[in-house]
Amino acid sequence: MTLSINTYQDVRGFNELAGEWNDLLHRSAADTVFLTLEFQRVWWRYLGKGDLRIVTVRDDGELVGIAPLFSTADSASRRVLAIIGGVEVADYLDLIVARGREEEVYTALLDYLTWPEASDWDVFDLCNVHQDSPTLALLPALAETRGWSTSVAKEDACPIVQLPGSWDEYLQILDKKHRHELRRKLRRAEAHERLRWYIVGSVHDLNTEVEAFLDLMAASAPDKETFLTPQMRSFFRELAHVTDDAGWLQLVFLEIEGQRAAAYLNFVYDNRVMVYNSGLDWQSFPRLSTGIVLAAYTIRHAIEHGRDAFDFMQGDERYKYHLGGHDVEVRRLTIRK
After folding, report:
1. Which residues contact 279 (CB under 8 A, 6 or more apart)?
2. Please, what are the domains in the chain?
3. What's the pTM?
């Protein structure tokens, strides 16, 4: 069996692969919103740097692998190959390979990285790879047979709640203390007559709602205000529109007395809710645990709509575990010549 390799080195690659990219993603073990064509293209447009290198692997014309990469120099002047999406804003990343074809596609990709036109790299950096990925199981050994060194390290934890069939069943999976605390926080918040939560939909102006979310996000903590540079704000605006068009966006707000108190920007993808970012008005409502309350409403909504999981994604903040999260790790695989 002979596999063919092709490399796209500019944004036209996204357009040329548009009819096949997500189809392959759905046939892979790495199916996540962060590897969709939509996310990858927006990330590269606003946050990408260096040289784009989208590597495709085909079997008799059929697309069986995509390595969405870019090449840049690190602080030590080493040439680094990394996955489009980076560490900061893409919680899960990987190579995209048809199920059952992993070993042969990885082999073809590593062979390609020895070719003269593709060998200008020192480090192959694969970040935010799910702990159960075939990439972690197979790629290190294949790389080491070429005399390259490899290392795998924990990147972060992603607390995930596997959702039961009803809200009452969900409450029972919490330990007694946290179940009591959640009920108390809900009662306290619901004592306000003018409390409501809503999911942004067709009756809302998405531009207005996204700006409100970004302002709440910036107000949450000094590091978030610093994080939200003009460039990053543009990335979030475009991403919201693109994921809304695809049917994946879930932007939710909690209002108290007409004032936005908390918000989550989530994705609904592969029948799971994925908590991407949050915003809180700590100063106006310091005693109401508005973030917890809105998370609980969103979890209940997910259960009512038959979702499989509620994924808090990266970060080991305590509230995620109080609400029933159990860790899945994302890891970093580094290959060095």
Report:
1. 213, 214, 215, 216, 217, 218, 219, 220, 262, 263, 264
2. 4-156+331-336 (3.40.630.30), 164-307 (3.40.630.30)
3. 0.96
